[in-house]
Design a protein that fits this description.
375 residues, 10 helices, seven-stranded mixed β-sheet, alpha/beta, elongated
Length: 375
């Protein structure tokens, strides 16, 4: 069995959870870094992680580490790689660069240098060259400059894995699917309990809870992954892994609900659930905050109310947070509540004692997931 080196990118703050997910999927030699995790595995694992990961963004396969003191050295050493092993002249490609050094300090220029080196090699060998497609290429290349070295990698995922494919409709400030999934894991919710998001927006939290409860592979309905365009793509292996994933899904019917005061937003949430045939598994309905009633005697409330960074006036939001706290205290005895917020002042308006405070990041915004035990 051939084991390869891989690395994955992940949101800040959930590296430990993502490393555990990789271990559960069968990864070996896992090493955590800041928003990145290195690991080893075979081709089957690469496909499996892309198919099953609920927390990672992209999975990369390093193919070379080359000296890159300046543009000339980078160009020369990129040409030392035999690109016909990775890229056919009939395929399109794009290069994304991160990092920099003193000479290579502009990511667009670095990417252009790499692109020129590759297409010149193709012209010499085949008398034809690949086209560049910066939006939807067949092959995504990643180049990371650190000091005088450049690590060149193939991006096996293509578009970020958080784009499950069920969310053409999004609210004003959508929560990434990967963060929603991490929050659900942190609540330790299981399908035996009711799951309710009373501020559901476009429905990401209830949909991710349903995907977890039904054991649906998050990548099962994506249109494609970049590794499907690679010369060594094993179609029969990939098909068998997808069939196996379909067999693992369960016919459970957990009680999962989402409500919002805006009817248009609820229609978006229903549309998103329908995209994955989950509309009969989740109850989305319009309800103002003051109208909330517990749908069962116990359960878990999980929500991501606006916190004034992007939407909503902070004074009005303060009133909303106070109302939310009052309703939780008065009507949801026997429940647990988890509220993600990036505003400490607003969090105080809830007026309840926290049982736990978990630091997270929503993009670049430092947030806290607040746990409340309601008696």
């Amino acid at each position: 069995m051939v084991f390869n080196q891989y690395f994955a990118t992940v949101a800040q703050g959930i590296e430990d959870m993502a490393a555990q997910e990789l271990e559960n999927l069968g990864a070996k030699e896992i090493v955590k870094g800041f928003t990145v995790i290195h690991f080893q595995g075979d081709q089957s694992l690469l496909y499996k992680v892309n198919l099953w990961s609920r927390l990672l963004y992209r999975i990369f396969v390093p193919i070379a580490e080359i000296k890159s003191h300046d543009a000339d050295q980078l160009f020369k050493n990129i040409q030392s790689i035999d690109w016909q092993n990775y890229l056919d002249p009939h395929q399109t490609f794009a290069v994304k660069c991160t990092g920099k050094n003193y000479q290579l300090n502009h990511s667009h220029f670095t990417a252009l240098t790499i692109k020129n080196a590759i297409v010149e090699q193709q012209q010499q060998h085949f008398n034809q060259r690949s086209d560049i497609d910066p939006q939807n290429p067949d092959i995504w290349l990643n180049a990371h400059i650190e000091e005088d070295y450049c690590t060149v990698s193939l991006d096996s995922s293509g578009s970020s894995l958080h784009r499950r494919g069920y969310r053409p409709a999004v609210g004003v400030a959508p929560l990434k699917e990967t963060l929603a999934s991490a929050i659900i894991d942190l609540t330790e919710w299981t399908a035996e309990l009711t799951f309710y998001d009373p501020l559901c927006g476009s429905g990401t939290l209830p949909i991710e809870a349903t995907i977890k409860a039904l054991k649906i592979a998050p990548g099962l309905y994506r249109e494609h992954f970049s590794f499907e365009q690679w010369p060594d793509f094993n179609s029969s292996l990939w098909q068998s892994l997808k069939e196996e994933a379909k067999q693992q899904s369960t016919p459970l019917s957990p009680l999962i609900l989402g409500s919002d005061g805006d009817l248009d937003i609820i229609q978006q949430a229903k549309s998103n659930a329908r995209a994955w045939h989950l509309d009969e598994k989740i109850s989305f309905f319009q309800a103002q905050l003051q109208e909330l009633e517990p749908p069962s005697s116990q359960g878990v409330i999980v929500c991501n109310p606006p916190y004034g960074k992007r939407i909503g006036d902070e004074q009005e939001l303060g009133e909303m947070y106070r109302l939310l706290g009052d309703i939780l205290k008065q009507r949801f005895k026997g429940w647990e509540a988890y509220i993600l917020t990036g505003n400490k002042a607003l969090a105080k308006q809830i007026g309840l004692r926290t049982a736990r405070r978990i630091p997270l990041y929503n993009g670049s915004i430092p947030c806290t997931l607040l746990k409340y035990e309601l008696y």
